[in-house]
Amino acid sequence: MSEHLPATVAPAQLECPKCKVIINYFDTKNSSFFVCPACRTFFEAQGLLPARIINGFKKSLNARLPLLVGMTGTLFGDEYRVVGAMVKKEARNSAQWVEYVLLQQATGATAQLAVYEGHWMFIQPTDKQYAVTTPPAPDNTVTLTPC
Fold first, then answer.
1. Which InterPro entries match (predicted)?
2. N or C: which end of the chain has fewer CB within 10 A?
């Protein structure tokens, strides 16, 4: 994200069902799964229903997060807020990466920003539909054409 902008929206808050730490979050419309930063409990919380603990993370992945939930910045002229961060890892090797969920402040649209070994990728949803029009080539490439 190209710059750090001042926070314009106060975060919503909820309490971790295990350790009672207060957790801030910004996407009140779509947020229902949370991880407590203090005790690493993974839980679901929806509306006024009691929070449901799913599990805890026993092992901490070796990742430094360059962006934190709540930060804001500008990408391609649009202001976004980081509303989620996930460290992901391959099951059978050491590859791991970070995926961020971004919320566009003005429209409520979401995007994804991922980083792997210093390489960043920005992904947005599209209304376009594509179809595979050729079988995979020997190098596993395919041809996609708009529907």
1. Znf_Sec23_Sec24_sf
2. C
